[in-house]
Amino acid sequence: MRFLIAGNWKMNGSRPMLAELDRIAEAAAAYLTVEVAIAPPFTLLADAGPRAGKVLIGGQDCHPAAKGAHTGCISADMLVEMGARFVICGHSERRAEFGENDALIQAKATAAQAAGLVAIVCVGEDEPERNQGRAVTVVAAEIDRSVPLASTPENLVLSYEPAWAIGTGRTPTMAEICEMHAMIRAKLIQLLGEEGARVRILYGGSVNPANAAQILACPDVNGALIGGASLTADSFVPIVNAAADIVR
Ligand code: PGA
Question: Is 91 a catalytic residue?
Answer without folding.
Answer: yes
